[in-house]
Write a sequence for this structure.
């Protein structure tokens, strides 16, 4: 709801809807002077003006959308009116599916979609389990020796190993893992890179060269092999497509490979890292999950998934989703002009007290009890909704669940220190290391 301090309506087409409430310029200037994160500004805009609101960082307004009905309208019902334009990670992922648009995106999504449902997911089940067992083996060593290790680093190793097995059918070796540190380096650098594309490319050229070398080698190896005992990897699927579709050049295959590497491990690793921090603060939540059923039971699996979902409510995989209005529209009664830039913010929708009672309380039971969470599809969207929702949703949930089924009953990390704030980039991650030792589980 707009406040009396709002300076007035945005321009709109008469007769098509009411004006969008706009945050007062003083709010933006104060945020700039304080040097806050973008999320701080967006939080204030929503609090002052409601679930569809505008603010100005330049001469043109930007629209913030957190209202569930408006979210569904933009992302699910009318994605043709609200489109993605450039992606800030394009210098890393090129024309991969996340950055692709139009007909190219539709073709790329059609090819990959079948790999993450039904038969495709069954093909990856064993590879996910093997990656989880590898991580559990390392943790057994940490527990035995009392070695201090970084929990975030461990979650990245697991998630990267998992997606590498899915892509290539091979476990991640130490040398490849070291080279793929360059992926995390580029992802971390993206928010601070120069605006000029050439300068940005130059700033991370060495890391991009390391990534390209890994991709070229993986493609060469996959060309000479037929896959594994559980079937082909995702890289083999891309190479097979190239035999019939000329658009699947080596460059596009590289872009899809890197896109799947980034999307397939960064978000899952971050979610698991936050989850362990939440369990450190709320040990009863772990005990409740493990008490829900025996090892391998459906009840325990559901309880562990509730831990994951509540973590994703706090820190969704995609915390902000930019869109661009291609035509005039009426959005839940508000007039929207063609050319308007829009920010969907799942991070704020998930923390709306009108949707989620006591939103700052960590409570996995929201996802296991009747009426524990809002049912509107626009109220909970950690992977987005609509045709551009994350393809790997089921893969990510499955790998996180399998890992926790291996680790939660056996070990409890004892953190030596924890970060005091979050870093907002492509994902929202803890801003600092998480050194810990392992204690044997009491359960």
């Amino acid at each position: 709801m707009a406040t009396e301090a709002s300076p007035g309506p945005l321009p709109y087409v008469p007769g098509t809807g009411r004006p969008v409430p706009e945050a007062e310029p003083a709010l933006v200037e104060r945020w700039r002077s304080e040097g806050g994160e973008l999320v701080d500004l967006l939080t204030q805009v929503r609090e002052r003006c409601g679930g569809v609101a505008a603010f100005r960082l330049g001469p043109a307004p930007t629209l913030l959308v957190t209202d569930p009905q408006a979210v569904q309208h933009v992302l699910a019902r009318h994605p043709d009116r609200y489109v993605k334009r450039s992606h800030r990670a394009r210098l890393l992922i090129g024309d991969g599916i996340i950055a692709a648009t139009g007909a190219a995106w539709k073709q790329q999504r059609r090819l990959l979609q079948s790999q993450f449902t039904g038969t495709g997911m069954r093909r990856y089940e064993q590879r996910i389990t093997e990656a989880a067992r590898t991580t559990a083996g390392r943790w057994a060593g940490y527990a035995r020796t009392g070695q201090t290790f970084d929990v975030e680093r461990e979650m990245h190793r697991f998630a990267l190993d998992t997606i590498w097995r899915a892509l290539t059918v091979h476990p991640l070796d130490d040398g490849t893992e070291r080279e793929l540190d360059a992926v995390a380096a580029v992802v971390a650098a993206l928010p601070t890179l120069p605006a000029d594309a050439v300068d940005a490319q130059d700033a991370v050229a060495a890391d991009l060269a390391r990534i390209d070398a890994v991709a070229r080698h993986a493609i060469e190896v996959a060309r000479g092999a037929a896959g594994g005992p559980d079937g082909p990897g995702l890289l083999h699927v891309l190479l097979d497509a190239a035999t019939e579709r000329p658009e699947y050049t080596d460059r596009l295959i590289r872009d899809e490979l890197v896109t799947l590497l980034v999307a397939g491990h960064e978000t899952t690793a971050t979610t698991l890292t936050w989850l362990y921090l939440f369990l450190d603060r709320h040990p009863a939540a772990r005990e409740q999950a493990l008490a829900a059923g025996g090892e391998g039971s459906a009840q325990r699996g559901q309880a562990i998934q509730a831990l994951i979902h509540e973590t994703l409510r706090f820190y969704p995989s995609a915390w902000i989703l930019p869109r661009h209005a291609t035509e005039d529209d009426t959005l839940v009664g508000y007039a929207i002009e063609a050319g308007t830039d829009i920010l969907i913010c799942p991070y704020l929708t998930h923390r709306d007290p009108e949707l989620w009672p006591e939103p700052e309380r960590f409570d996995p039971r929201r996802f296991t009890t009747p009426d524990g969470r809002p049912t509107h599809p626009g109220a909970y969207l950690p992977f987005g909704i609509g045709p551009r929702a994350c393809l790997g949703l089921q893969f990510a949930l499955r790998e996180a669940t399998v890992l926790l089924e291996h680790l939660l009953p056996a070990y409890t990390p004892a953190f030596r220190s924890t970060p005091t704030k979050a870093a907002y980039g492509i994902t929202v991650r803890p801003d600092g290391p998480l050194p810990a030792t392992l204690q044997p589980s009491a359960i």
User: Anything to note?
Assistant: The longest strand covers residues 435-440.
